[in-house]
Amino acid sequence: MTDDNTQSDLIQSTIRDGVQFITLNRPEKLNAFCEPMHAHLLAALRDATKNDAVRAVLLTGSGRGFCAGQDLAERMPATPNEKVDLGETLEKFYNPIVREIRHMPKPVICAVNGIAAGAGANLALACDIVLAAKSAKFIQPFRNIGLLPDSGGTWLLPALIGEARAKAISLLGTPVAAELAAEWGMIWQALDDEALMPTATELATGLAAGSKVSNALIKQAINSSSSKTLDEQLDVERDLQRKASDAPDYAEGVAAFMEKRKPNFS
Ligand code: LHQ
Q1: Probe ligand 1: pick from 25, 72, 140, 143, max atoms within 8 Å of CB?
Q2: DSSP strand E in the chain: where?
Q3: Is 249 in the pocket of ligand 1 (CB under 6 A)?
Q4: Alpha-carbon span 26 to 71, nearest angstrom
Q5: pLDDT tens digits, one per residue of 73-117
Q6: Residues of the chain with pLDDT > 70: what percent?
Q7: How far apart are CA 191 and CA 197, in angstroms?
């Protein structure tokens, strides 16, 4: 998937106005991950990272769900005694996707159009700005099948909503409706269903037209903060601001402000 506009059955990918739109497309199974989806999604994300024409990514799902996580039919032990190594599954299929989203030097926006469950919920939460339709819900259903949250869930949830809520929704499997998720700070905004894609598209297009230096460095700095003390983070900001002021966007941004015009970022 290296062309501007590429499409597989399961993952659709299109570039428009500097935004790579990536859609999980297995609606009859609420976009639950079957094996080829991982490779196609990872390829689309890696293309987005590498392609200079892409300045922001917008991830969503087709149909009434965003993503129901792993397709459980594919990872079912054939007999009660058969052992399935889910650690290997995570390392091979899920962790590279979360890492790519997290480390890509471009903002990744997620438009959660419906239910987001299991790895599907945590994939959404790994994105930089998460918008959700008011009808959407976030569920950590792992406890129903004897597992623990994965795909970054045990790191992302406490960071976003605190330990008390993270533990309760993981241990109880309680669904969190989009509006409550926004109230808790798990996501950025809950929107009327029909407003989701227009708002997400406008937001992504606006980011794509912004300074790619700012986008990359803001993401890098905020990502790094959780493993740093304030003193260490002050050093990170100094180093990254030095890098920012060395790039042409700074001069252009200040000139545009002084001349009362819109900046024309490189
Ligand atoms: C599904 C699924 C699904 C297959 C809906 N699989 N078919 C990583 C590494 C390795 C292994 C394990 O895990 C992980 C990470 C994970 O993601 S584990 C968590 C996996 N996900 C779940 O446990 C969620 C299972 N799904 C549900 O609980 C419900 O489907 C939810 C609450 C998401 C939605 O409920 P409803 O709105 O009532 O829809 P539904 O249950 O009727 O689903 C619609 C169809 O989608 C249905 O198929 P069918 O052929 O009967 O119409 C479901 O079987 C299918 N589907 N999730 N994960």
Answers
A1: 72
A2: 6-7, 11-16, 19-24, 56-61, 65-67, 108-112, 115-117, 129-133, 137-139, 176-177, 189-191
A3: no
A4: 11
A5: 998 888 888 888 999 999 999 999 999 999 999 999 999 999 999
A6: 97
A7: 10
> Is the minimum distance from the CB of 118 to ligand 1 under 6 angstroms?
yes
> Which residue type occupies 224?
S
Q: Which amino acid is located at 146 in the chain?
A: G
At 184-234, the pLDDT tens digits run 999 999 999 999 999 999 999 999 999 999 999 999 999 999 999 999 999
Nearest CA to ligand 1 atom 55: 29
CA of 251 to the centre of ligand 1 (A): 51
Instruction: Specify whether the CB–CB gap between 116 and 130 falls below 8 A.
Output: no
260 φψ region: left (φ > 0), alpha (ψ -120 to 50), beta (else): left
* Ligand 1: nearest atom to the Cα of 75: 11
Instruction: For residue range 137-157, list pLDDT tens digits in order.
Output: 999 999 999 999 999 999 999
Residue type, 217: L
What is the DSSP pairing of strand 19-24 with strand 11-16?
A: antiparallel
Mutation to probe ligand 1, out of 37, 62, 70, 89 (largest number of atoms < 8 A from CB): 70
Residues 110-128 have a mean pLDDT of 98
> What global pTM score does this model have?
0.96
Whether residue 24 contacts residue 37, with contact meaning beta carbons closer than 8 Å, is answered with yes
